[in-house]
Amino acid sequence: MRTIETMIEKDRLGRIHVQPFFRTMSKEAFEKVMLDCEMKHFPTTEKLDYFRTPQEGLLLILQGTVHIFVKSDDGSPVVIEALQEGQLVGFSNFSYFLGESSESLERHQLEMEIMKDSHCLQIPYSVVQQRLSDETVRDFILRKMSNRLATAYSLLGEQAKLPDDWGDSEPFVRRVQDFMKTPVTTVNREATVQEIARLMVEQKISSVMVVDENGRLLGIVTEKDLVQRVVANGASEALKAGDVMTENPHTVSRHDYYYEVLAAFYDYGVKHLPVVEGGRLAGIVTFSNLMSKRDRGSMSILKTIEESSFLSLPVVKTAIYDVLSNLIHDEISTIHTLEIITRLYDRLARHCVKLAVESLRAKGIGEPPVPFAWYQMGSGARGEQFMLTDQDHFIVYANLVNEDPEQVESYFAKLGEEIVVHLEQAGYARCKGKMMSSEAHWRGSVFDWRQRLRTWAVKPTDDDILLGYNFFSFRFLYGDGLVNKDFIDMVKRQVKSSQTFIYYMAEQEREKPIPQLNQPLLTLFRGRAKRETIDIKLHALFPMHHCLQILGIHKGIVNATPLELLEGLVTEKELSAGFADEVRHAYEVALGTRIQLSWKKHLRGEDITTEIKLENLRKWERDQVRTMLDTARSLQSHLLSKL
Q: Is the pTM of this model over 0.70?
């Protein structure tokens, strides 16, 4: 006789039991129905028939992302729903479950595609019927179906408007696999340049891919390569693909979003991006092909950023907020939302620095006297900034050799102020703590910064530790790559010899314990006015980031976002992969809660806060907050155990 343990891994049972569909069941009743359910694993890119018969019941997504789509007349997929962790697949069968219909879904030709490696629980019809007798479950289903119905009507209305307003439009989150070209014209590295040129002319293409015998990408040869490396240099016609190709070209994945690919074209300055899967060539995306598939969201925002002048910078904020609104409305996952928005903000910040440099040139102040690098700190550097906040940034420039120190400092003082002015024009408020490159102690040479770090480490005050927290969240965004490398190397060497500073940072975490919510939240906080709220930033995001930051510094990991720190700490065997997954989930819950809370306040024109009133939370939301804080506290305990 099979047991729950053999059917479903033990560590998943707790996550399943707290889902709204099962939450009200006793442990015994829950274990009994689990024997009728089945755990299913679907790898990325797998396509499946959407439930052909209602008796198959529902799928509860425990991890991953799936899309439900229907094929149009031309065979192309049209996504109906994008579902993620905690959501149910199969709501369209409820007319059958309720006895209102006996029809199959086959006529709809619905399919399900696994967009991200997914673990799901199949809940058969018999269990669904049983759970529908629970009023709490019926209420949950009604709310979810109402939300999806509202979304469906909204999308229908939007699609009806788009042809008039914009012509054909693509979804903002369309994937590479939807518009890449395949098959791709390929040659081996021994093909002559004459053969390559003939292929380009015959097939009316501007690039060919160079692959090995196993179909693995070796390089790319473009028209530009032939002109620059063969024709312009008067090179021998005996040259082969291996002689003129660009090795290790920039590539994209078939699962990348439309916007990510468009940004890659701008970032890398190329017009061809091979699509690689498992090291093998799977397709190609060209800039012209992407333009023909452009959508109004990504095209307009990139154009707005790239073409903005000082006077038009305020428009960019509105454009980015429009994109953010769409992502929140479409319930795109928190991590994906922040990835997309962070890329936009990064482009905006870089553009502001570029405009600042050009402004000094136009004023007759000239070019930077030495190479420099510009870094962001704070939420922008952590990839957590979804709405524009205040400025946190600094400048590092190359060590001086024969340059006049006063002239160099004079230039970068002007540049720092010019950057602040441009960012302010774009919507970033000036930092009240003056942690900006317009301030003398937030700019300097690599040597200056080494001295600064040494000063912090000798006898750190509370203010120094606060500065350290902000500083060590830095991320390189603009400037010279060699200066950045020298700076990163210096920081790593410095923190290696400054363990006392790291110890004091950790000690501060000991003095700020995360609330322990083992009791029911409303019981715990009832009648205690000062504790009727949870500050999602103070009690969750900051502690998690600080702990990851300190552990990362200890392992020599700097210039990284929290998710990159998590990955690095697993690689360094500081954290187990399982615990890192728990922290990643807690981090996403905290970020998602913060985004939803702040965005609603923004729409209502209220002051943005990160406090949650416990009395306003539903039971499952309180459970989620409790689990998130428990995980954050476990991470804090792990850090303190290292002292």
A: no
